[in-house]
């Protein structure tokens, strides 16, 4: 109030001191607003299991102090839980398939059945026992059973997490008494996020001048969690939308009739149309490219309704590239369909990512950072 | 007086009747929306909202149909939509009385399934309601085709008997359903409302039949016509008001009185059902040492810890899991043989946490959800165990670690220390909302915002988010 008043008054000697004070306050407020403006809010959005939390962990590893030993050790129970839950899903799945199928390829050998029942029992309890050599061996044997492998091949019909193969291959190491998870183990560990988590970080650039401060928010992707997203939509600089492109043949955790890719499509459409995001930049991360690579050559894209007009042209690496470009084009089409004409100048970029690969994430984030910086300068009228 | 006519309406009694009808409609609207507006109760979703809403609309149609077709006011019937058939047959029938009775039958059906068969109704209300209204629509179609109405909008004797049969048959169906559940000791006014509804609708039909008979027998007596239609409209208005009840779909709201500023007597289902408060096994002055190494589900049984943890979870927008834990814990305290209370609590939990799109829907797998919704015994003690296990896992992996380093836990430790030292318990205002998970959130319409016990969480609505300094 005082500032406004002082501007219109005549300057007298008694006023000069006040003016100096007022100027100082004004300068400080300006500084603070500038500092606040530099906190860029980034939201990680996407359907369940699209890789948001993995990207979040990667950013933590890249730009913060990373994981200390205590935090790494805290993931042991998570990894154990993942293993027990996965083997239980596979075992229960094999029983289900055995009931419906005519052939006996889903029927386990009798000793493996015993192991399976025991593990299923463990998997349904609240507290999981720590993985030891004995259990690891039993799980390993069950995993190698052909019935379980056949069930795993049909894993897209069950809710088999993507980390299954990795953990099953490493059972020996994971069951060690003094096991401390590696960074890679932590990245593979699957935790369903509920609520909202945030971190604040400042990407250190080549010239070491700390530039903008980013505040990154990670959310849960399941349907009930999406109700909560709306609380975060105010003042967002950029939305990083994660879409797992390997999910075109899988169904949802929450609604086992719905195809995951269709769900992602609808979700992306919904997010784009949000009124708060008029000036928000959109970074689309087409994630899980590594799994996509191995899947697209065996499972055709047209099993998903959205991709039904896809025509494969070749084989091998060329085919993978072709399929990827097709999906990218589909998302771009969707973006332009859902964007009103007055918003068409907001930034939209598509990135190919494998969230588990730190190099890829680092490079991708650098590009994102550059884009946002350029956008800032553009907004400030300096470009 | 000159314009007053038995045939064309316009008598003072007609105007009085119409104003009574309008008044009762207004009263009905007030009564239906009162709990939501005055006491800021969040509006229900799904059938708990739609069935009362459809009842209000059907009541309106019913009264409107009677007014338009009953020769109360003079108007030129030159448009097709002002014709007798539209009002007397369609609006009053399937869209009015038929819909009204069908709503009640649907509600009685839900109660029957919940309390007698102990499961959730197999047919969702979206299908059940149109199904029951179908006979009315068929009947109206037949009448439309045969066109038996005379110029005064009256049916012939044969048709009137058919119409009265249809009306009474619905009342009979409602009586049957109500009879099937009359032995249940409901905690709220459900049964009373059903009997009331039956009584009033039966008396209305009785009045209608007698009025009609008198009219037909003494066709030429004008005052009979005028009085009979006056009585018909007024009884219909009273019916519509008395018939409406929210006890069946929203039992807790029946506690709300019409006097303003009267606080909700029972805020939660737990209080309404009389379940004792939890966590009071330990005496107040005994210090409860919170040991982070104990399993989370044991720690959560202590009330103080649970409240602190709940406040923390609410601040990270993950509170529904803890609320679910609390309510399932309360369900566990109801004795196994008290099935009525168990059913109330279980239904309440399902409507609030399990149904897709519920206010505080929890993050459980599709299989767990379907297992709960398709259960054959809603009173089973382990109904929610799987879901609870999943959610405790979720809480452990997401919230537990961050909670130990949050200010909420520090406050809790200070409180217990203060208590164990014999000091008076300081009111820890807990104004700092610092948590390592989330610094602040724009929570204009926060579904996890609860006014009881813990911190009132407010956030400034500026563009950027500030880090409050601890």
From TrEMBL, chain A:
<dbReference type="InterPro" id="IPR002976">
    <property type="entry name" value="Plant_Gprotein_alpha"/>
</dbReference>
<dbReference type="InterPro" id="IPR011025">
    <property type="entry name" value="GproteinA_insert"/>
</dbReference>
<keyword id="KW-0460">Magnesium</keyword>
<keyword id="KW-0472">Membrane</keyword>
<keyword id="KW-0342">GTP-binding</keyword>
<dbReference type="Pfam" id="PF00503">
    <property type="entry name" value="G-alpha"/>
</dbReference>
<keyword id="KW-0519">Myristate</keyword>
<protein>
    <recommendedName>
        <fullName>Guanine nucleotide-binding protein alpha subunit</fullName>
    </recommendedName>
</protein>
<keyword id="KW-0378">Hydrolase</keyword>
<dbReference type="InterPro" id="IPR027417">
    <property type="entry name" value="P-loop_NTPase"/>
</dbReference>
<keyword id="KW-0547">Nucleotide-binding</keyword>
<comment type="function">
    <text>Guanine nucleotide-binding proteins (G proteins) are involved as modulators or transducers in various transmembrane signaling systems.</text>
</comment>
<keyword id="KW-1003">Cell membrane</keyword>
<keyword id="KW-0807">Transducer</keyword>
<keyword id="KW-0449">Lipoprotein</keyword>
<comment type="subunit">
    <text>G proteins are composed of 3 units; alpha, beta and gamma. The alpha chain contains the guanine nucleotide binding site.</text>
</comment>
<keyword id="KW-0479">Metal-binding</keyword>
<keyword id="KW-0564">Palmitate</keyword>
<comment type="similarity">
    <text>Belongs to the G-alpha family.</text>
</comment>
<dbReference type="InterPro" id="IPR001019">
    <property type="entry name" value="Gprotein_alpha_su"/>
</dbReference>
UniProtKB/TrEMBL annotation, chain B:
<keyword id="KW-0472">Membrane</keyword>
<keyword id="KW-0812">Transmembrane</keyword>
<feature type="transmembrane region" description="Helical">
    <location>
        <begin position="15"/>
        <end position="37"/>
    </location>
</feature>
<feature type="transmembrane region" description="Helical">
    <location>
        <begin position="193"/>
        <end position="214"/>
    </location>
</feature>
<feature type="domain" description="RGS">
    <location>
        <begin position="295"/>
        <end position="413"/>
    </location>
</feature>
<protein>
    <recommendedName>
        <fullName>RGS domain-containing protein</fullName>
    </recommendedName>
</protein>
<dbReference type="InterPro" id="IPR036305">
    <property type="entry name" value="RGS_sf"/>
</dbReference>
<dbReference type="Pfam" id="PF00615">
    <property type="entry name" value="RGS"/>
</dbReference>
<keyword id="KW-1133">Transmembrane helix</keyword>
<feature type="transmembrane region" description="Helical">
    <location>
        <begin position="93"/>
        <end position="115"/>
    </location>
</feature>
<feature type="transmembrane region" description="Helical">
    <location>
        <begin position="49"/>
        <end position="73"/>
    </location>
</feature>
<dbReference type="InterPro" id="IPR044926">
    <property type="entry name" value="RGS_subdomain_2"/>
</dbReference>
<feature type="transmembrane region" description="Helical">
    <location>
        <begin position="226"/>
        <end position="246"/>
    </location>
</feature>
<feature type="transmembrane region" description="Helical">
    <location>
        <begin position="127"/>
        <end position="145"/>
    </location>
</feature>
<dbReference type="InterPro" id="IPR016137">
    <property type="entry name" value="RGS"/>
</dbReference>
<feature type="transmembrane region" description="Helical">
    <location>
        <begin position="157"/>
        <end position="181"/>
    </location>
</feature>
